[in-house]
């Protein structure tokens, strides 16, 4: 049985491996970080202001994770966009507020003979919903083909402010969608 719990540091290596497995596969196809770099990234994310992190555990093995933290629109633009020329477009699309940024949500892509073992079972929705319960405007960035798009729109009632279908493209990745809820 899968349980959703607060993040426990003892699982950092397993979560780092899971992070790499999730985001190097479809629909993201990001380059692999490796366990050490992924663990550093996760630890850096979890050290941010008012960070909250959750784990989905199946028999004490991580099968999902989610985390978020507080930031301003300008910190978001500076920390998530490498090219300084990209930042004004992003800032133009976001109200100047303090946000709770849902940074990462991932579920193990393991398959069984009958289909996904963990995906499509509501674990990502459950964790994202828990993160969204902060008393702050929400901000999330994903890609157009990610399952998080449906969760952002349908369950979290977030509104896209940067999206290919709005003819407002992310300056560094045309697949990206930025959502807010104010």
Features:
182 residues; 9 strands; two-stranded antiparallel sheet; alpha+beta
Structural description of this entry:
The structure is a single chain. The protein has helices at residues 12-23, 35-46, 73-80, 87-93, 123-131, 147-155; strands at residues 2-6, 52-58, 61-72, 98-107, 111-112, 115-116, 138-143, 159-162, 176-181. The chain is α+β, with helices and mostly antiparallel strands. Helix 3 runs antiparallel to helix 4 and helix 5 (123-131) crosses helix 6 (147-155). The longest helix is centred in the N-terminal third of the chain and has 12 residues, at 12-23.
What's the gyration radius in Å?
A: 16 Å
Class derived from helix and strand content: alpha+beta
Portion in strands: 25-35%
User: Can you tell me the residue ranges where pLDDT is under 50 for at least 5 consecutive residues?
Assistant: none
Number of helices: 6
Tally of DSSP β-strands: 9
**In what order do the strands lie side by side in the largest sheet?**
1-2-3-4-7-9-8
Helicity, as a percent range: 25-40%
Span between N and C termini? 35 Å
């Amino acid at each position: 049985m899968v349980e959703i719990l607060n993040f426990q540091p003892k699982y950092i290596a397993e979560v780092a491996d899971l992070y790499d497995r999730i985001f190097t596969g479809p629909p993201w196809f990001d380059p692999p970080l490796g366990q050490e770099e992924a663990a550093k990234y996760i630890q850096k994310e979890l050290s941010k202001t008012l960070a909250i992190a959750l784990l989905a555990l199946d028999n004490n093995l991580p099968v999902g994770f989610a985390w978020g933290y507080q930031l301003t629109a300008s910190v978001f633009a500076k920390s998530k966009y490498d090219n300084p020329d990209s930042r004004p477009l992003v800032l133009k699309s976001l109200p100047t507020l303090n946000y709770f940024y849902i940074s990462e949500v991932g579920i193990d892509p393991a398959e069984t003979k009958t289909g996904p073992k963990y995906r499509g079972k509501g674990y990502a929705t459950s964790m994202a919903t828990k993160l969204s319960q902060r008393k702050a405007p929400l901000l999330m960035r994903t890609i157009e083909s990610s399952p998080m798009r449906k969760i952002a729109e349908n369950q979290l009632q977030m509104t896209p402010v940067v999206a290919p279908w709005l003819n407002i493209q992310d300056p560094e990745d045309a697949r990206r969608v930025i959502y807010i809820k104010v």
